[in-house]
């Protein structure tokens, strides 16, 4: 019985060390708009603070102000994500309301009516083309 348990544990550990049970990739990381970044650099120089500390402090402060978990850097709430965008942060893929998961949220539908091109398609579909929103819109973005 002990041999079976040890063997099972060894198999589980080997499976976890392979790519079978890897955590999903982060949603996307927030980046600071270049104009806002320049302002941040100037403020850091005036205060005599290192640029890395200044950047991380600003990111944390903005995330707290928007009620986002600053450890994970993610939120499923479109209002929180739009708050981050209003503070000068952006996602590499594009605006958060054009992302495939947020696409059908009422807040994002209203946001897209005001800010997006009429023929815009959701982004994030390259990795998961079978996602329902991607299939319905035909997005390859």
Give the neighbour order of strands across the main sheet. 1-2
Largest sheet: 2 strands, antiparallel
Strand content bin: under 5%
Distance between the termini: 52 Å
Low-pLDDT segments, ≥5 res? none
Mean of residue pLDDT values: 85
Number of helices: 6
**Which series of helices and strands comes N to C?**
HEHHHEHH
Radius of gyration: 20 Å
Structural class by SSE content: mainly alpha
Helix content: 40-55%
Count of beta strands: 2
Shape: flat
Structure, explained:
The chain is mainly α. The protein has six helices and two strands. It has a two-stranded antiparallel ribbon. The longest helix has 16 residues, at 2-17. The chain is flat, with a radius of gyration of 20 Å.
Provide key terms for this protein:
141 residues; mainly alpha; two-stranded antiparallel ribbon; 6 helices; 50% helix; 4% strand
């Amino acid at each position: 019985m002990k041999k079976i348990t040890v063997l099972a544990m060894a198999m589980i550990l080997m499976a976890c060390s392979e790519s079978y049970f890897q955590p999903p990739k982060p949603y996307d990381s927030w980046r600071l708009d270049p104009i806002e970044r320049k302002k941040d650099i100037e403020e850091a120089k005036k205060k005599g603070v290192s640029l890395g500390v200044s950047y991380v402090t600003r990111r944390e402060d903005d995330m707290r102000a928007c009620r986002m978990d600053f450890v994970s850097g993610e939120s499923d709430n479109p209002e929180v994500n739009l708050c981050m965008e209003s503070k000068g942060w952006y996602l590499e893929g594009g605006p958060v309301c054009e992302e495939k998961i947020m696409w059908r949220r009422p807040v994002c539908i209203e946001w897209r009516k005001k800010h997006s091109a009429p023929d815009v398609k959701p982004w994030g579909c390259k990795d998961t083309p079978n996602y329902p929103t991607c299939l319905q819109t035909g997005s390859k973005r």
